[in-house]
Amino acid sequence: KTTQIAERAGVTHAMVHYYFQTKENIFRKIYEDKIDMLKDPILAIVESKDLELPQRIDAIIETHFDFLKANPELPYFLMGEIRNNPVFIETLKDRIGDVIAKSCKKLQVELDDYINRGIINSILAEDLMMNIISLNVFTFIAISVTQSHERDDNKINLLLEQRKREIKETINRRIIKTEKQA
């Protein structure tokens, strides 16, 4: 309830109502801010001229993973909203659909160049991004299910860092051609 939100934020209910009117508007503002927190750095990596494509792919994996590490409940929250609020998926598409399409189009041009030069295996940018997202997101879902109730933050952080390395290696093994494949 907005009264509970106001209480936890340490402000009056009238102030929350003045700025947001509804709980849905508060939610929309939060997820828009979260999307921008991820979208802007990913776009910067995609557009970067300082790194070669394989290094940028690693940077995309790391940036997305670290974002999820800082917001580990976000995947559950988004899945719940997608399931319970079909309009949410359209709002999400409106907010980031063009950005994803533009990024994938740019990445595909570079992927095709690397494919044509025999450096990487054939892959669609959309499939690459889906692989990155699914491997990263499922890590946080699996950790919450597999960890004991007695949280050991150091153990979890070590596990997450190992998992991030494993995801980068998995993606790289999928796309980088070996001498046998060349």
| Biggest sheet descriptor | none
Question: What radius of gyration results from the CA coordinates?
Answer: 19 Å
Taking all residues together, what is the mean pLDDT?
88
- SS content category: mainly alpha
Count of helical stretches: 8
Order of helices and strands: HHHHHHHH
| Principal-axes shape call | globular
Strand coverage percent:
under 5%
Distance between the first and last residues' Cα? 60 Å
Number of strands: 0
Question: What is the helix fraction of residues, given as a range?
Answer: over 70%
Low-pLDDT sequence parts: none
Summarize this structure briefly.
The protein is mainly α and 182 residues long. It is built from eight helices and no strands.
Question: What does this entry look like structurally?
Answer:
The protein is an all-alpha fold. The protein contains eight helices and no strands. Helix 3 runs parallel beside helix 6 (86-116) and helix 5 (74-84) crosses helix 6. The radius of gyration is 19 Å and the shape is globular.
